[in-house]
Amino acid sequence: MNLENLAKLGANIDDAFFLIGAAIFALEILKALFTRSLRGRGLLDMLASASTQIPFLIIETFLLTFAYGAFVLVGDTVVSWTFPITFWTVMLALLAADFVYYWEHRIAHEVRVLWTQHAVHHSSRHMNMIVGVRFGPFEGVVSALFHLPLVFIGFAPELVFFGILVVLAYQTWIHTEVIGRLGSLDGFLNTPSNHRVHHGCDDKYLDKNYGGILMIWDRIFGTYQREEETPRYGLKRDFDSVNPITVWFSELPGFVRDLKNATSWREWWMRIVGRPDWQP
Fold this sequence. Notes:
mainly alpha, single chain, 0% strand
């Protein structure tokens, strides 16, 4: 397999999951029209979710281009060898990217400065396909930094970005309520049922099911939770805004306020790297 074929494979996988997501979204629209729920705050929430792509894509266009160049520079000047691009190394890169995604995702929930970005994705009280594109402006940059060690291991930058693309593309179809539980598939794949749990703010569902494609990482590291009843979606705190600007920067005002009010260097530091709910 060469770079051209790898790029085509990545694009085909991305297109396939996009079509699956589009079909599910069409079902959601039909259901909403049938139940007359496509109006009011629900519709405004969907528009707010879609609006997050404006700052996200502007930042991604510039910084991820730089990140890819940095990956290539590291691969060419620091790493003395790389895995050849074969079927097996592509599969290994995908598995490695999924493993890194688990920890990237988990740490984004556990470190407050990273949570200021990822909380945007969790700030909706709804679960639908549009929530799947609800991103914090700098999430892609954080993801690139977490995956950089894969280049040092010996994965070519193209393999690393292929893995990132596929893990994210896979998750296109899981932000929905129109697909119920899927039996044994829920046990080892990230499915809509498992991801509904992840978006829940109920105590039993909080900070569970971080996996991108596979649930094996959650089972190994003790963060797996099956869906038992419909979760209450959104942030633990009282947040239900449909104002796009408020959604884009939902956690930043509180973060900046806590830094300004810190009474010691230790508190200031813990406000940055501690858990989002850390208190002195």
